[in-house]
Every structure is written in structure tokens, then in C-alpha cells.
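As described in the Methods, two query proteins were run sequentially through the folding procedure within a single session, without resetting any intermediate state between them. The first query and its resulting C-alpha cells are shown here.
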Amino acid sequence: MKGCRPGDIVLAPFRLGNSTYPRPLVILSVAEAEEMQVCPVTSRPPSGSPALACSLHHFREGGLDLFEDSYILVHKQGTIRERSIRYKKGTLESDYFRTVLESARSCR
């Protein structure tokens, strides 16, 4: 999917644990070779791992299909290709996205 940028949340296949399936991902950065650095979003609160709570008020547009908080797993970063994106779910507010980036960088 063309036009996705850092701060967007997209749906794409991503390996988490022992399985790969489509899940929401926050785009952290985009490289020239159409590769994107991402971290997954889950509805389950992680235990003992760094994560950021994410709710509808953290979105500038769009959102996730949940009524409760979701969690951005900043410690589970990976890469995807742009062509694997199924669709865009929304875009995070700029200030909140800066918080996500700072947390993700501290986990590298």
C-alpha cells in the first residue's frame, strides 16, 4: 500500500511468538527499499515487557476496532515490506507518536 508514513497504524502479516498473522502495526520509519520498521499492537496487556497503552484519543484519524486500550509492544520491533500492508487503520497524534519513537529507541 503506497503512501504509508511513520505514525500510521496498518494491518499486515507479522510474526509474534510462534505464529505469523495479520495484526495492527505502528510504522516507526520507512527505508528507501520500501522496508518499514514497525512494532506490533495487541489487545492483551503484556506482563513484564515495555509497552505503551493506546486508546482512541491517541489517534489523529481512524483507530482500532476495540473499545478498550490496546498496547504498543515497543520491544518487539521488526521490518515489513510495503507491499505486505493490507490497509491503513489510522494515524497517531504527533505528540503520542514521538512518545512511541522514544520508547522504541530505548528498547533497541
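Immediately afterward, the second query was submitted; its sequence and C-alpha cells are:
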Amino acid sequence: MIERKAFFISGENLTRIEHKKKILVIFDMSRDEVVGVETVDIEDRFVSTEELLLFLQKKYIRVIYVSEIDSKTENLFLDSGLVVKTSMTIKNDKLFNSLYLSPPIF
């Protein structure tokens, strides 16, 4: 079974949901292996947290990674079935630790 995990990224860093310039990098995982990747530019795309939540649900995302999140938004996401991982809680996360967020320099 495929599990979808999404990272909120700005530049080369994990970022907050509220950050203006961000992209969403979605990983399709099967048995702890990445089997697909999708990148979505979500800069100024959603007018509310609820609209973003609906988008994430339509994309079948089950886990989100953010740098930080306020408790009200986190509870909204948790109540909707999304797991929220912040920079404080992902120290031992296998997927996060395998990422290299800087683009290659040629």
C-alpha cells in the first residue's frame, strides 16, 4: 500500500504552512522506499488553512512535515487524520534523514 508524505519547503529549508513562498514535495512511500515524487508550487494558492487541508486530503496525503505549526492548526489537521511532524519531532525520521534539500551545483 502506498503512503503519501508531504514536505513544506521554502528554498532549501523545511518551512511553516503560513510561509508565503513554499512548495509541497510529495513522496509516495511503499515499504519504507520512495516509489514516486511530486512537486507542487502552492505559493498564494490557498486562502485558508481549511482549503489547504482539503487539498491535502484530495491528494491522499497522510503525513506532513513542517518546520513549526501552531497548536490550533495542528489539532485541525490531527482531527482530520493527518499526522503532523515538525522539525522538533523528526530527528529519527527515516525519510527526512535521507533527504538532501540543497540542489546540486554544476
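The chain has a mean pLDDT of 86. We note this only descriptively and draw no conclusion about the first query from it.
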